[in-house]
Amino acid sequence: MRRTLLVSFILTGLATTASGQIPATLRLTADEAVRLALEHNPDLKADRLDPQISDTRIAVAAGAFKPSFNTNVLHNSQLLPPAGFLTPAPTQNDVVTSGAGLSQRLPWLGTAYNVSWSATHTDSNSFLNSYNPQLQSGLSINLSQPLLRDFFIDTARQQLLTSRTNRDIADTRLRESVVRMVANVKAAYWNLVAAKGNVEARQKALDLAQELARVNKAKVDVGQSPPLDLVSAQAEAAADEEQLIVAQTAVKQSEDRLRLLILDTTERDAWTVNIEPIDPPPAGIASPDLDAAVANAVRDRADLARARKDIENSQTGVTYAGNQRLPDVRVNASYQASGLGGTQVLRSPGFPGAIVGSGTVTGFGSVLGQIFGRDYPTWSVGLSVSYPIGQSADEANYVRARLETAQARQRLTSAEARVIQQVRDAGWKIEMNAKRILTTRAARELAEQRTDAEQKRLDVGLSTSFLVIQAQRDLAQAKTNELGAILAYDLALVDFESLQEAGPAGSAPPVVATSAQSPARP
After folding, report:
1. Is the separation of the CB atoms in 71 and 100 below 8 Å?
2. Distance between CA atoms of 462 and 440, rounded to whole angstroms?
3. How far apart are CA 252 and CA 256, in angstroms?
4. pLDDT at res. 474
5. Span 292-305, pLDDT tens digits
6. Residues of the chain with pLDDT > 90: what percent?
7. CA-CA distances (angstroms) from residue 333 to 141, 240, 336, 370, 381?
8. What are the chain's domains?
9. What distance in Å separates the CA atoms of residue 51 and residue 57, rounded to the nearest whole number?
10. Nearest to 394 by CA among 322, 346, 290, 460
11. Alpha-carbon distance 294 to 227, whole Å?
12. How far apart are CA 163 and CA 157, in angstroms?
């Protein structure tokens, strides 16, 4: 549905077919071609996944701070042989142990904790036990707090910071891809406009050559002109026809390049649709504001934004490496509480005393009450210090991180200089090609006047077929030169706009081949 609405919007004056497919002719403005590319281009669709992939990397890094829950249940049955005078008979122990725990590394101050709880149910025929069955439970809390190393930053927090910065870098890459795609689409669009204009110019040149050949044939037939004039005119017509064939093929190639950028090429109809650009080339001669453009580029260029983010990553590395040089001083604290219960074993006087029966039953709830009532607590607090003697790897890592940061800053400075040069160069090309348009337009108008004058002189016998052919040839060349200047101007405008937001693309649609090739794009 979205695709059908978009196609119906961009078709000016033409409706889609009943099946909703792309019609045979697609009339497009430059802006509409850009919209289609943003909708259908597969390379751009792939690039849009990069920020989502970076989001998953952030989630992986943040996972280091998620709490971890664990639990276990174990049943152990054991029959011990009579190994001593305290165990004169085989001893049978059936033990069921269960436990649960929670551990987490906090994203602040490097704190880590672990909380665990355990419960044990023991059935035994050992006369040494005071309870049978016996219930035991325990609660353990451990806390580790770094005071110097890993206090402000540690490996997990460094990775999280870096992954978040890389997420911003992914955004700049996507923005750069969009800018380059827009530039490539506009360049392909104006290439197609120029190619079609070249076909029109070659067709007019062929028409003039064929008309001269027809007139010369009539004159030769009545004996007013020598046969050589007819041969010369026919040779010129053949050469113009060959140029027309080349120009028509260039149109097909330009259409294919534009199709590849703006249409869903998985549909076979996309390769047969005729693309008709309806926007004329920009008529006004722009005077670019180089100072404003340079300021915009230095502030907004995606590659410079990535370079600044790289410096952020390097600075994070410096902070981490500097922290790792500090002694590892940690406060470790733990608390344990235990409870005991079950069915009390009654014994006769003496040691160890014979089992004479069962006494008080202490239930599991009472055992838990002993734990949380702190009946049997155990506390421990300690301080640990670790520091390497002599030159450590952490010192070398810190020096390396600082050098890499300084290197990244120098590269940013160099990149900013290249950006300024690229934007200024694009501005100079706009001015140059604007002047070329004026001069080639004047040359084309003069060539038209000369051709018309030579044709009139030939009609009254004051000129020759050779001069008329030469004038027609010069007119065709002048039209080609004007088209090349207009195309170069259009492409310079595209470059000037895109270079303020993204670096030069690795490849761009080639300029339509003409006999007077315009200057290559940077």
Report:
1. yes
2. 29
3. 6
4. 87
5. 999 999 998 998 99
6. 26
7. 8, 94, 10, 21, 4
8. 2-40+159-315+401-498 (1.20.1600.10), 67-146+328-386 (no CATH)
9. 10
10. 322
11. 64
12. 10
Provide the token pair at 430: 């706009």
Helix ranges (H only) for 325-392 are: 364-372
pLDDT confidence tier of residue 77, bands split at 50, 70 and 90: confident
pLDDT of 235: 86
> Does the pLDDT at position 11 exceed 50?
no
Residue 301, SS3 per DSSP: coil
**Cβ(513)–Cβ(216) below 8 Å:** no
What pLDDT, on the 0 to 100 scale, is given for residue 41?
86
Count of CB atoms situated within 10 Å of the CB of 134: 21
> CA 478 to CA 487: how far, in whole Å?
14
Burial class (CB in 10 A: 0-12, 13-18, 19+), 252: exposed
Tell me which residue has tokens 């992986």: 60
- Give the tokens for residue 277: 């650009």
pLDDT value of residue 506:
53
CB atoms near residue 488 (< 10 Å): 25
Which run of H or of E encompasses 49?
Answer: helix 49-62
Q: Residue 311: what pLDDT?
A: 92
- Checking if the pLDDT of 341 tops 60, the result is yes
pLDDT in tens, 203-219: 988 888 888 888 878 87
pLDDT tens, residue by residue, 161-198: 999 999 999 999 999 989 999 999 998 999 999 998 88
Q: What angle do CA 165, 166, 169 make, to 5 degrees?
A: 95
- Cβ proximity of 274 and 24 under 8 Å: yes
* Residue entry with tokens 């005077």: 287
Whole-prediction pTM: 0.76
The two three-digit tokens of residue 420, written as one number: 């300024």
At position 9, the amino acid (one-letter code) is F
Rounded to the nearest angstrom, the gap between the alpha carbon of residue 92 and the centroid of all alpha carbons in its chain is: 66
Beta bridge mates, 381: 333
Place of tokens 């149109």: 251
- Residue 234 confidence class, pLDDT cut points 50, 70, 90: confident
For residue 85, which phi and psi values (nearest 5 degrees)? -70, -20
pLDDT of residue 225: 74
The angle subtended at Cα 298 by Cα 295 and Cα 303, nearest 5°, is: 150
Using the structure block, give the residue that is written with the tokens 């027309």: 244
Is residue 302 within 8 A of residue 172, CB to CB? The reply is: yes
Tokens read off for 269: 């109809």
